[in-house]
Specification:
The structure is a single chain. The protein is built from four helices and two strands; from the N terminus they run E-H-E-H-H-H. The chain has 84 residues and is mainly α. Helices cover 56% and strands 7% of the residues. The chain has a two-stranded parallel sheet with strand order 1-2.
Amino acid sequence: LDAMSVGLPVIGTRAGGIAEMIEDGVSGLLVEARNSEALAEAILKLAADKDLRDSLGHGALKRCRDFSKERMVEENIRLYQSLL
């Protein structure tokens, strides 16, 4: 999220919560965990395509808004209120 918050395109693996943060092809690229060939291909793809880097960087900025501290606080309050 740190890199995404400054508009950098990211590559992540489909492991843990990473796939919840990165929308494949929209705000970054996702590859299968423990697949070094897929990771290398994604790196080369980004390195070779400025338009893709720009598009994913823009998408990353938008996606970060979904993970703002304000939104997380609001969602936690909503959850707590639903438990009452």
